[in-house]
Recover the amino acids of this structure.
């Protein structure tokens, strides 16, 4: 197990370097890193050259990348154009997005699994067909449509929620945005749970559990669910990284000042340091979340051994 | 009588039609007795067992008629919760493939101990101690350490011992073993069979041994019931049946056992295939494959004729068959 973790951590290095190099090249080579510094106007050539020299942008790209990475490992992600350190932006943005992600994951776990169990045990009944149809709708409608629709109905038309989230972004305000962010994954969790449950329900060990004279609730929770939820848990685990980085649309709709919002602003304003910095951290989150999921898999299923 | 099944009918409703899996099975098992149920796949052996135990998948399965008396009560008339209490505690089952029949993500100790926790209300700790005792009873080496292991960490024979231990945990009055040795190596088969026979004697429990292996049956069974197309076609004490079968199907089964004194000669095989349960032949279901079939066999379904006081044959010509 220990050796497996070490190997996986070592494997992360090339993935991390590759991903950050890619985003670094895209922003610095394909875009113009100083274009955003002069605001709306075009920079005059003399100023642009001076800025580039000051920022070290006249040096070869590989050297720029190494310098940047060196600084990242000392905790310096550079400064945004308004002079604010990128780490400061992260310190305000990440807690907001983490809260939003927690709300979304809770929806996936509680609602997604509950619906999956309900439909999995009532296969072919009206409730099953109904939920299945609903998940299909949720999956096929893009998030921005669901998001805007809920904002319009709940926020504007009926006034149940505030259409725009305050900068504090407390948990209470994040319920509807969290639901929107979770919606597609939630539908997948429902379907995955349903299929997995229906499949395992016919398995020999469930028949054994019934033959042992166990009460139905024990057969379902201890024998059927315990086995059926293994793929679901791994799906949800892997989804954490996707939700944190994928909240751009949701955060835009509800004006949540989290990671997605900062990334969007960074891209629109060609704010190089912000974009590269945030993406770097997201890559790390993704990698660690995936490692944890793989380790969790071995805990849930004793047949899996890592060496 | 410990178990008495009367005129049991089970059918499966599928998209293609109704499969009549069990068509009027009647049989009895006394305390301490071993009944071997013999037949090809699809003859209704396992379905009968599942219906008796109450673990039939319903739907698509359906018990259309019959009674199952166990210790004087008709199990089919009990409420599900009452029936559940009988299951596992008084009436247990051993399945064929222990690897798939045991839960892969729970330790064997948990799965054995569960019987005591659920049926006897024991604490987890006491149940664990009983699990170790059980594992020692079925002679699993190093039981105290292995109680924490998972099913996949055991060999096939050891897994089947755990399966047996689980069925015998609460000392049931009757155990149904559905092909308990089919999935095992030949060398292990004998050990497991011996263990099962030994434990049966120790607990004086009834045993229904479902099998298609005639070799296994001869040593351990008291009586044999031969099934074909969902009916019992011959029922007899084991020695009488081996000496002189009273049904051509039984004769065919016996003749298809390889024997040393017929070495070098072609092995007999019953011609044709088992019937499709959606289109069971008219009259005697065996007539298309029967070497003795005559016109009456195609039209009239033979009742179970009394060959002897404890022997029956569902063949119009049982006398001729018995004479060989």
């Amino acid at each position: 197990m220990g050796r497996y973790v070490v190997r996986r951590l070592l494997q992360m290095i090339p993935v991390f370097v590759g991903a950050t190099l890619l985003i670094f090249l895209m922003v610095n080579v394909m875009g113009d890193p100083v274009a955003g510094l002069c605001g709306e106007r075009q920079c005059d050539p003399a100023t642009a050259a001076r800025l580039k020299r000051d920022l070290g942008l006249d040096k070869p790209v590989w050297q720029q990348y190494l310098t940047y990475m060196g600084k990242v490992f000392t905790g310096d992600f550079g400064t945004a154009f308004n002079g604010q350190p990128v780490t400061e932006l992260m310190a305000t943005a990440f807690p907001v997005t983490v809260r939003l992600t927690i709300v979304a994951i809770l929806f996936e776990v509680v609602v997604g699994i509950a619906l999956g169990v309900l439909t999995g045990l009532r296969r072919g009944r009206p409730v099953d067909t109904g939920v299945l149809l609903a998940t299909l709708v949720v999956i096929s409608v893009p998030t921005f449509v669901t998001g805007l629709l809920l904002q319009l109905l709940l926020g504007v038309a009926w006034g149940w929620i505030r259409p725009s989230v305050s900068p504090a972004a407390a948990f209470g305000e994040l319920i509807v945005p969290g639901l929107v962010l979770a919606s597609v994954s939630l539908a997948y969790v429902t379907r995955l749970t349903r299929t997995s449950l229906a499949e395992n329900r016919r398995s020999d060990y469930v028949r054994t559990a019934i033959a042992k004279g166990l009460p139905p609730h024990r057969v379902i929770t201890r024998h059927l669910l315990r086995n059926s939820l293994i793929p679901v848990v791994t799906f949800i685990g892997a989804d954490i990284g996707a939700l944190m980085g994928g909240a751009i649309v949701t955060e835009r709709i509800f004006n949540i000042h989290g990671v997605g919002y900062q990334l969007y602003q960074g891209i629109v304003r060609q704010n190089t340091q912000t974009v590269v910095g945030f993406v770097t951290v997201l890559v790390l989150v993704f990698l660690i979340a995936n490692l944890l999921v793989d380790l969790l898999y071995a805990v849930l299923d004793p047949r899996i051994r890592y060496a | 009588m410990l178990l008495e099944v009367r005129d049991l009918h089970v059918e499966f409703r599928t998209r293609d039609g109704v499969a009549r899996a069990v068509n009027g099975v009647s049989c009895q098992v006394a305390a301490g007795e071993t009944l071997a149920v013999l037949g090809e796949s699809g003859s209704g052996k396992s379905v009968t067992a599942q219906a008796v135990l109450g673990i039939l998948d319903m739907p698509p399965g359906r018990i259309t008629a019959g009674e199952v008396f166990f210790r004087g009560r008709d199990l089919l008339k009990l409420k599900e919760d009452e029936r559940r209490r009988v299951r596992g505690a008084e009436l247990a089952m051993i399945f064929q493939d222990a690897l798939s029949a045991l839960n892969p993500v729970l330790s064997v100790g948990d799965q054995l101990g569960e019987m005591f926790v659920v049926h006897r209300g024991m604490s987890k700790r006491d149940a664990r101690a009983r699990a170790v005792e059980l594992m020692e009873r079925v002679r699993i080496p190093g039981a105290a350490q292995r109680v924490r292991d998972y099913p996949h960490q055991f060999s096939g024979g050891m897994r089947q011992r755990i399966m047996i231990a689980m069925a015998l945990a609460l000392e049931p009055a009757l155990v149904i073993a559905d092909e308990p040795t089919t999935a095992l190596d030949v060398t292990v088969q004998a050990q497991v069979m011996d263990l099962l026979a030994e434990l049966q004697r120790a607990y004086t429990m009834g045993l229904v041994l479902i099998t298609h292996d005639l070799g296994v049956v001869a040593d351990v069974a008291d009586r044999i019931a031969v099934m074909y197309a969902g009916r019992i076609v011959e029922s007899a004490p084991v020695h009488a049946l081996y000496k002189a079968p009273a049904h051509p199907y039984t004769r065919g089964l016996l003749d298809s056992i390889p024997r040393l004194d017929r070495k070098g000669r072609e092995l007999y095989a019953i011609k044709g295939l088992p019937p499709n349960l959606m289109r069971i032949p008219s009259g005697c279901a065996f007539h298309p494959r029967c070497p003795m079939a005559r016109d009456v066999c195609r039209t009239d379904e033979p009742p179970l004729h009394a060959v002897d006081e404890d022997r029956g044959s569902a063949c119009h010509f049982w006398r001729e068959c018995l004479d060989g």
Notes: Chain A has a mean pLDDT of 84. The CA atoms of residues 35 and 295 of chain A lie 45 Å apart. Chain A touches chain B at residues 202-205, 207-215, 218, 222-223, 226-227, 230, 300-303 (CB under 8 Å).
